[in-house]
């Protein structure tokens, strides 16, 4: 069953938030395990803030010696396994990437973000070579403005699109997304009297989840062809 990692060598790129958004969206229809493989444990912290949505399990990884077993056990139990990684290269990161069916690389749309994303893609490519297996990856623009893009942002977007697969959907900078770290749970559990724009955030999250499923289908067909 699909194993999806969130990786970026840059801290604060949006890995944990994007993993929570995807997990809570997928869990509308199926069982999902989230593995917190970041020693900073922000995902585990989120999981304790309120009751978790049905069909979501959160595991705090015991570290590099345990991660492969944790992944295979989770994959045997649930339809999707999502792994939130730390913002730097490590053996743990490398093990998780090598087990993944898709590595999502969140990035902002400044030049430095794009450079970091390309660096992360290079790490994934190294892992692919070491394992003699193509590890599919895709860049996700996260924390971007929902408004019209500047010339520079367009340029950076085009640069990354020329270099690699990029999600059509961007996870825009939205209060509803950042609120998940305060409130816990998913977008549907947020209180509309306290958080603005929940509906738009849900539409954005649904588009992201649908695109993840499409990419998984596409790469699965490519690998059996
Ligand atoms: N789409 C978004 N909209 C609004 N805020 C966001 C979004 N994505 C991330 N954030 C905020 O940005 C901060 C960093 O995001 P997050 O923790 O997801 O990054 P990370 O890549 O997991 O960081 P680290 O490498 O430190 O683990 C958080 O405070 C989060 O609330
Ligand atoms: Mg994180």
UniProtKB/TrEMBL annotation:
SUPFAM superfamilies according to UniProt: P-loop containing nucleoside triphosphate hydrolases
Pfam families reported for this sequence: VirC1
Origin superkingdom: Bacteria
PANTHER family recorded: COBQ_COBB_MIND_PARA NUCLEOTIDE BINDING DOMAIN-CONTAINING PROTEIN, P-LOOP CONTAINING NUCLEOSIDE TRIPHOSPHATE HYDROLASE
Name of protein: ParA family protein
């Amino acid at each position: 069953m699909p194993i999806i990692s969130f990786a970026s060598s840059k801290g604060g790129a949006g890995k944990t938030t994007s993993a929570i958004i995807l997990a809570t969206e997928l869990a509308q229809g199926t069982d999902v395990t989230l593995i917190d493989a970041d020693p900073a444990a922000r995902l585990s912290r989120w999981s304790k803030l309120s009751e978790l949505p049905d069909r979501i399990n959160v595991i705090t990884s015991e570290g590099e010696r345990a991660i492969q077993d944790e992944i295979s056990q989770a994959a045997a139990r649930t339809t999707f396994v999502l792994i939130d990684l730390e913002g730097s290269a490590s053996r743990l990161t490398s093990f998780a990437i090598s087990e993944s069916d898709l590595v999502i690389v969140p990035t902002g749309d400044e030049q430095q973000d794009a450079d970091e994303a390309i660096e992360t893609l290079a790490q994934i490519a190294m892992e692919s070579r070491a394992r003699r297996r193509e590890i599919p990856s895709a860049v996700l623009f996260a924390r971007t403005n929902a408004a019209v893009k500047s010339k520079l942002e367009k340029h950076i977007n085009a640069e990354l699109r020329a270099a690699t697969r990029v999600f059509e959907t961007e996870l825009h900078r939205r209060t509803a997304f950042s609120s998940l770290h305060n409130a816990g749970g998913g977008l549907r559990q947020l209180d509309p009297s306290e958080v603005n724009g929940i509906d738009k955030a849900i539409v954005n999250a649904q588009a992201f989840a649908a695109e993840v499923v499409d990419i998984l289908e596409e790469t699965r067909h490519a690998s059996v062809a």
